[in-house]
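Handout, page 2. Input:
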Amino acid sequence: MMVHFGIFLLWLLHFLPYRLQARIGNVLGMLLYLISARRRRVASINLRLCFPELSEARRSRLVRQSFIAFGRSIVERGILWWGTRERIQKLIRVEGAEHFQNALGNPVILLTAHFVALDVGGSWITQHTDGVSVYSRQKNTYMQNLVLQKRARFGKQSLYARQAGMRPVIKSLRECRPFYYFTDQDWTTKDGVFVPFFGIPAATLATLPRLVTMTNAKVVPCITRVLPNYKGYEVHFYPAWENYPTHDLIADTRRINEFIEQRVREMPEQYFWLHRRFKTRPEGEESFYK
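Output:
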């Protein structure tokens, strides 16, 4: 019942002006910060590991800001799920659109990361092309079905469970359907390797260079950020990576983390610090989160 009530509230809030929705999201984020001691601790540990040069006060402020940004992303998702195409488009500014346009008609992987406006970029892409993405299965069936339905409400969007493997994604790439892909969460090292992220060995999926090798796809990074002063969002497409992959799996995977790290340094408060990014440790190392 609580999930249904929460979805009903999101639907109601999406009728409000964007600026008011965003401020309500700020309040929700602050409430989550106050009541979510476990996630607050995870974010604090992540920031201490990644930004040891910052003062304790500055890191504490970043933890609060990341919760507030996360709260906003929840409330503003109502616009993506029920708002009109025109309303969503008015909120989005696009940079580097030529890199996106030049890649269409060929296999292309739109490399992204877990910033709070991740779904905004996905919404823009599905309004301009028939794309492909992956998702992690959720325990709540109603919530999972709703998320899948809303993410595919524009265009012909195919969503495949991560647990199903990459075979359907490879097929779609060979059909020249853009693949919106994120690799920056800890899924253990079963399909990955340890490469540095902010100088800390982090279990990172090595799927991207393998996919490029199998499909001859181009990698065009795509990062979405929340603009200041309630101005909406920016979807930024970067130039396609050259000389990728190099067939050095470690170097090719490390390049992913280096790119994401650069973007995180530009807007650290918008990154998803609530996830245990360094959960899996090299053999013999103790967990950071105990």
